[in-house]
Specification:
Layout: H1 3-24, E1 28-33, E2 38-41, H2 43-49, H3 53-56, H4 69-83, E3 92-98, E4 104-116, E5 119-128, H5 130-148, E6 152-157, E7 162-165, H6 167-173, H7 177-180, H8 194-205, E8 210-218, E9 224-235, E10 241-250, H9 252-308, H10 313-343, E11 349-351, H11 353-364, E12 374-379, E13 386-388, H12 390-408, E14 416-423, E15 429-435, H13 463-473, E16 477-482, E17 488-494
Parallel strand pairs: 12-14
Antiparallel strand pairs: 1-2, 1-5, 3-4, 4-5, 6-7, 6-10, 8-9, 9-10, 11-13, 14-15, 15-17, 16-17
Helix pairs in contact: 9-10, 10-13, 11-12, 12-13
Bound molecules: adenosine-5'-diphosphate.
Adenosine-5'-diphosphate (ADP) binds next to helix 12 and helix 13.
């Protein structure tokens, strides 16, 4: 090999190596001369700026800069030449680049100075920051959402030590982020719920997401809050669960309001039942007062006659006859009252029995679920509408369902209420209310629908009697059966016509 060939060979070999380096470098590499004219512009730069090497080499580098750097660059190089103040040279900093399409992107630029033929050249290495910036912005945006959330957002490791504590957590629990970071989450758990926290962490450790878990937590100042928690695993880049993220919502006020609504509805129900019964009872008492007073007076007179003299038998018979007549009058009053209920101005409209029953059941079971009563609906689809006084039929259903719920209050284990609406024979539709309570007490079954039959301390014993009057008035029938499993079954049927009896 000839010496000069070998010289050439060595030279072209290192030039080729340099070309490969420029072509394969991930970062942009650009070389400018002391006048700012681009000498070298690699493939990464082409990708970054959108200009080809042909567009840029031989041009002033300022074309790759947005305003005001674009305008100031020549002056900057001149000032460096005059003062030797390197500013960026020999170091690096974050600057902006301008793409061919005019868009501006963040980049990290480090500049080194070299010499060629007695002139300075500058080598710039350009690292694209757009992706990183975007990720940072995304992270900041998410952090801002987390921070501004009114919901509690907490991170903890698998040992239960807090790793993140947002503003919502501070406001809800009263502990600052500084107080809680690194501290055990046990700080906000009521002592009796410590095991629950461990169990939740175990579930999340297995990769489970726990949704809307209703529990309680304690604030720094000792208040107990109702909290709904959703817990999800935090995973590392390899997918292993390394922590738990918790989103919690303070349900205390909502739960209080719900409780209050339940109480008020209960009260309302109670009052409306009482006032209906109270009205009936007071009118019965008023009407019955007269004949009963007469019965008492006549009886007193007969007793007096019998103890003080020997009254003529026809006189005693006369008085006893008067007593019987007054008793009969009392009976008539009761019958009249019943027929008043039956014949009272009813407004018959066509209604879906299933809807009417469902609405009434929903009203009558408010709060029952909390007491562990499971309500099952079985509605046969496609039932035709029936003519009925909706309010009265609802009154019957409320009565039956309330009785069932009250009966279930005494049932220890299964507390089930089944409400069924379906077709019955002869064009009738049947409503069934069955419970798993203790059943109808002995001796009550035969008098169940008679007024004042009750086994309850504060019962009036007229609910079923009124219900019977209403169902009779609709041309239907109501009856009770002992529940074959356990408890009681009440059924009533209504005719298709909804005719008055
Ligand atoms: P009250 O509920 O005021 O007692 P009702 O006429 O509605 O009046 O009920 C009469 C009685 O029938 C009740 O006291 C109770 O002994 C019995 N009873 C009604 N429904 C049921 C039921 N679902 N399970 C057991 N007993 C019941």
């Amino acid at each position: 090999m000839l010496p000069d060939q070998s010289e050439d060979g060595r030279y072209s070999e290192s030039a080729a190596r340099l070309d490969t380096l420029l072509a394969t470098a991930v970062d942009g590499i650009i070389v400018i001369d002391s006048a700012g004219i681009v000498q070298v512009y690699n493939a990464a730069c082409e990708r970054l700026f959108g200009y080809s090497a042909g567009d840029v080499v031989g041009q002033n580098v300022r074309m790759l800069m947005p305003s005001p750097y674009h305008e100031n660059h020549d002056r900057y190089i001149a000032s460096y030449r005059a003062t030797g103040n390197p500013k960026i040279i020999g170091a690096g900093r974050e600057v902006s680049g301008r793409r061919k399409d005019g868009s501006v992107f963040p980049m990290y630029l480090s500049v080194g100075e070299g010499h060629q033929n007695g002139q300075s050249i500058f080598v710039g290495i350009i690292h694209d920051l757009a992706r990183q910036k975007q990720a940072e912005q995304e992270r900041d945006r998410l952090a801002a959402i987390v921070e501004s959330s009114h919901d509690v957002i907490i991170g903890k490791d698998l040992a239960g030590s807090v790793t993140a504590w947002n503003r919502g957590a501070e406001l809800t629990y009263g502990y600052t982020v500084a107080e809680m970071m690194g501290r055990s989450i046990a700080a906000i758990c009521p002592p009796e719920r410590k095991a629950e926290v461990d169990a939740l962490i175990q579930r999340v450790r297995r990769g489970e997401v726990v949704s809307q878990f209703d529990t309680q937590r304690v604030t720094k100042d000792g208040r107990t809050l109702d909290i709904s928690l959703t817990l999800s695993p935090i995973r590392d880049s390899a997918g292993a669960v390394v922590g738990v993220s918790t989103i919690g919502r303070n349900m205390t006020e909502l739960r209080l309001a719900e409780r209050r609504v339940r109480e008020l509805t209960q009260e309302m129900l109670h009052i409306s039942r009482l006032s209906a019964m109270g009205q009936l009872a007071s009118s019965i008492a008023h009407e019955l007062n007269q004949p009963l007073t007469a019965v008492v007076n006549y009886s007193e007179a007969v007793r007096h006659m019998l103890t003080t003299s020997s009254p003529p038998p026809e006189k005693v018979a006369d008085f006893l006859g008067k007593i019987a007549a007054q008793a009969e009058r009392a009976g008539q009053i009761i019958r009249r009252l019943r027929s008043y209920v039956e014949k009272s101005e009813v407004e018959r409209t066509l209604e879906s029995l299933a809807t009417v029953v469902e609405e009434a059941t929903a009203l009558a079971t408010v709060g029952a679920r909390v007491e562990g009563v499971v309500v099952k609906y079985e509605f046969e689809p496609g039932l035709p509408e029936l003519g009925m006084d909706k309010i009265q039929i609802q009154q019957v259903v409320v009565n039956l369902v309330r009785n069932a719920v009250e009966a279930l209050g005494g049932a220890a284990e299964r507390r089930e209420l089944t409400v069924r609406v379906g077709r019955s024979v002869g064009g009738y539709q049947e409503v069934m209310v069955a419970d798993t309570g203790p059943g109808i007490p002995d001796g009550v079954l035969e008098n169940l629908f008679k007024p004042f039959t009750t086994t309850k301390k504060s019962g009036m014993g007229i609910g079923l009697s009124i219900s019977q009057s209403i169902i009779d008035a609709h041309g239907g029938r109501i009856w009770a059966e002992p529940n074959p499993g356990r408890g009681a079954v009440f059924r009533f049927v209504l005719p298709q016509s909804g005719a008055s009896s």
